[in-house]
Amino acid sequence: MTTLCQLINRQVAVRPDAVYLKDAESDAQITYEQLRLSCLGIGRLLEGKGVRSGDTVSVVMPNGVNTMRLLLAGMYCGVIVNPVNLLSQPDQMSYVLAHSDCKLVVTSSDWYERVRRFWLVLIDPLMSGYSTRWRQHMRRVYLTTSLTTLR
Predict the structure, then answer these.
(1) How many domains does the chain divide into?
(2) Alpha-helical segments (H) within the chain
(3) Tens digits of residue pLDDT in 16-66
(4) Which CATH number characterizes residue 112's domain?
């Protein structure tokens, strides 16, 4: 089975300067080589947050270049990426985040406060219906916007 990492690396070997993505809003372009370097850089950032291959990262970000870069970087590094539907109702989003077994939640700055409010509810130690083990896990999950300044 071919991985995303192998596919990107194969394209870099054959045509590193070919355009992989063109942003419709800004006309900015990302080549295959830039994509590979972005994946490696974001991978280092994820690793710095304690995320390893096989861990889950939930993403609460609108569609865009940075979201695409984060999704691809996660897959490039063997991370399970859980994009959260931004049209979800608060209780639905809370449920998805609570049951995703994520180690990290990455959100854009415009979603940070909303997600933070869900998160505070999710990790409330008095919350009924959830095991002590699950609540302890949720306290260790890191909520960040720092990856939205993707390098």
Answers:
(1) 1
(2) 4-14, 32-48, 65-76, 90-99, 109-122, 132-140
(3) 999 999 888 888 889 999 999 989 988 888 888 888 999 999 888 888 888
(4) 3.40.50.12780
